[in-house]
Amino acid sequence: MKYLVTGGAGFIGSHLVDALIVKGHQVIVIDNLSTGKKSNLNPRAKFYKKDIHNYKSIKPFFAGMDGVFHLAAMPSVQLSIVHPLESHDINANGVLNVLMAAKEAGARRLVFSSSCAVYGDSDGKILKKENMKAAPKSPYALHKYIGEEYAKLFSDLYGVETVNLRYFNVYGPRMAESGPYSGVIKIFLKQKADGKPFTITGDGKQIRDYVFVEDVARANILAMRSKKAGKGEIINIGSGKNYSVNQLADLIGGPKKYIAPRAEMRHALADISKAKSLLGWQPMISLEKGLKLI
Ligand code: UD1
User: Fold this and answer.
1) Given CB 3.0 to 4.6 Å as the disulfide criterion, which of 8, 22, 225, 291 pairs with 29?
2) Cα(257)–Cα(262) distance, rounded to whole angstroms?
């Protein structure tokens, strides 16, 4: 099969490209290299440096594609709060451009990388289920929600099959080293290596669900071919296990330093029963094991 991966030079996208190539698929990557890196790119993928907010410039690359994986994004909750216009341009308008290009090219299915940030605080409920009301707390979360709604609309209106995967906290090799795109696991590992204390935001009791990047890549491939999905379903992709930031720090092991809290959702734990029933997916790498693979 021929697949187009937007954001295929990025952290998650590049693992997906690797998995597709191992399975013998032909892969085209479009990526503007804003957070992605050429060094992440599988040499057997065809790469084009393109920006998803320019519809005309990306459209030609969708011709002849069997399916599209849309991962290109400005993937930072905190950055979107400071730069809502840029976030909207990439995380909302960009999805529309990619959906439109997929539709025009006659691609059968598009798998969209969304985020558990869409849930927001869910009336204090820790366990997030797909039928809960969306309550975005940041521009990033709102834009991902808009993307999901567009994907569903394109299925209803135009018959493009779509699946929305709501990722929880993805970690693994090739995570951003530093800056706003760097996740807490990478930050803590670097702090440990540098002999510094872990910087814990707020009281550290906030809960996250950490899912290994190769498990996420596999979920995408299953979502592309599942016969039980394709009409804009929302599907959680997490480990189903919860860790507070304090527990994560204890697992990695080292001294803690408490810093100011962030404007962010308090708790996120995935109910992964829908992923099991619709995709036949479940995570294979535990956090304890995954930490050793970074
Ligand atoms: C992450 C993702 C985002 C995704 C979202 C889903 C990153 C950078 N962002 O956001 O793309 O959509 O999950 O909810 O991976 N923390 C500390 N100390 C630090 C850094 C962070 O205690 O030095 C805390 C944060 O306040 C947060 C938790 O660790 O409570 C996780 O933070 P982070 O890895 O940045 O991810 P999210 O903000 O959850």
Assistant:
1) 8
2) 15
